[in-house]
């Protein structure tokens, strides 16, 4: 039997009425799946980009400094002995690190140390001539300078 285009459509529709919609649904569902996969890849790409850029700043970026340990030992007559371990946490060489000791907001001692390579550490020591009392609190601030900027770390200590 020879069918025209409309007749063929009617015969196929009557034999399987959902076959027409399944073709359309299959193409729509595959398109949605593709769009969802594309969105997932874009979101994952943003996360990877953010992580890599953050690691690049940490590993290669400017100066970074932390205080590994800090101690002030009081001596008779108000003198004190200072010991501060400075750690270079940045990705560049610290050319100089200034260690400042404050008592109630007033600078009582300052010394410089350097250079410190990336990932390296150094211990700055010194004798504080006056103003140290056993059991008193002091603020130690380390300011590190490199060719890519400065970084600061601080720590409170109690003189022993």
Your description of this structure?
The chain has a four-stranded antiparallel sheet with strand order 4-3-6-7, with no helix packed on it. Strands 1-2-5 form a three-stranded antiparallel sheet, with no helix packed on it. Helix content is 33%, strand content 41%. It is of the alpha+beta class. A hairpin with a 2-residue loop joins β6 and β7. The longest helix is centred in the N-terminal third of the chain and has 42 residues. It folds into two domains: 56 residues; 94 residues, Immunoglobulin-like.
Residue stretches low in confidence (pLDDT < 50, at least 5 long) are none
Sheet having the most strands: 4 strands, antiparallel
What is the topology, as strand order, of the major beta sheet?
4-3-6-7
Regarding quaternary structure, what we see is single chain
Second-tier CATH architecture of the largest domain = Sandwich
What's the gist of this structure?
The protein has two domains: 5-60; 65-158, Immunoglobulins (Immunoglobulin-like, Sandwich).
Which secondary structure elements does this structure contain, and how are they paired or packed?
Layout: H1 5-15, H2 19-60, E1 65-74, E2 80-88, E3 94-103, E4 106-113, E5 121-128, E6 137-146, E7 149-158
Antiparallel strand pairs: 1-2, 2-5, 3-4, 3-6, 6-7
Descriptive terms for the model:
7 strands, 2 helices, elongated, Immunoglobulin-like, 2 domains, single chain, 160 residues, 41% strand
